[in-house]
Amino acid sequence: MSDYLVPFDGTSRVSEFSTTPPDGVDTEKKLKKQLREINDDLYDLQRVLYAHNKYSLLLIFQAMDAAGKDSTIRTVMRGVNPAGCQVFSFKQPSAEELDHDFLWRSATRLPERGRIGIFNRSYYEEVLVVKVHPEYLDSQRIPEYDLDSIWQQRYASIRDHERHLAQNGTVILKFWLNVSRSEQKERFLSRLTEPAKNWKFSPSDVKERQYWDKYMDAYEILLNETSRQYAPWFAIPADNKPFMRVQVGRIIRDTLKNLNMSYPSVSQSDLERFEQMQTMLKQETDSN
User: Fold this and answer.
1) Half-sphere exposure of 191 (CA within 13 A, CB side)
2) pLDDT digits 0-9 by tens, 94-134
3) How far is the C-alpha of 35 from the C-alpha of 24, rounded, in Å?
4) Which of 131, 132, 126, 116 minimizes the C-alpha distance to 90?
5) CA-based, 20 to 30 A from 82: which of 63, 145, 280, 286?
6) Is the backbone of residue 214 left (phi > 0), alpha (psi -120 to 50) or beta?
7) Is residue 223 classed as helix, strand or coil in its secondary structure?
8) Rounded distance between C-alpha atoms, residue 60 and residue 174, angstroms
């Protein structure tokens, strides 16, 4: 499917995933042109997905802060009919959400058949930020849990959940936008020094950098535990945003093309009725 597919054998190492494009990457101008072509393809494919009405597409984006999740979603999906696409961002859970299991709040926002659903962060936060900060478990009011086993339980729940969705027509693509720590630093500095970007900055973003190694360990385990054929992960180099966006767009486009979808066919009897309707419409007069 892609050079950036995370293998399904559970042997991946985060350190082996590049944050930068390969040598000889196209210029930014060429990459933007490629993305516009992908946008056009996705416009057509989304219309067929909606009319075919047998599959839904779930896109999950996870990354460290400033990796480019928002801009990637915005630019890759540019031109797609908003009536057939929905985006949800999952931040700190509400009191209502904490009264349910950790999959509940995302399960209520899954895309219907014929639609594209996009999760900007997701239930994977429960084995990322919560794993890095296990004290957050106290607010989840879980009756009993063992810190040594709860993560494996959650990986199993996620695998079962995604397998169930895939078996019922939801095509799942998961993107880890892999930004380097040095590039994140530069983007944080840009947010601090450019007035138009000040609103993007939060002091907590810098605080979380202190846990970088723990986050990388958490990513490595979740990628190995949950990259499966029915719900693959893709580790996309994120230091070059135009390159990253093209790779994400290609994977989505190629996946939709491979679904072998088509517009619904019309029966011969319906065609005959259409001809009758055409005749009736043509025979109408303005007075009618």
Assistant:
1) 18
2) 999 999 999 999 999 999 999 999 999 999 999 999 999 99
3) 18
4) 126
5) 63
6) alpha
7) helix
8) 5
CB atoms near residue 172 (< 10 Å): 21
Retrieve residue 266's tokens. Answer: 């019309």
Strands (E), the chain: 56-63, 85-89, 116-120, 170-178, 233-237
Taking only Cα atoms into account, the Rg of the chain, rounded to an integer number of angstroms, comes to: 22
Q: Token pair of 238, please?
A: 């994120």
User: Which of 204, 257, 244 lies closest to 49 in space, CA to CA?
Assistant: 257
Do 233 and 1 touch, CB atoms closer than 8 A? no
Q: How many CB atoms lie within 10 A of CB 43?
A: 14
CB 115 within 8 A of CB 56: yes
- Using DSSP, state whether 25 is helix, strand or coil: coil
pLDDT in tens, 11-45: 999 999 999 999 999 999 999 999 999 999 999 99
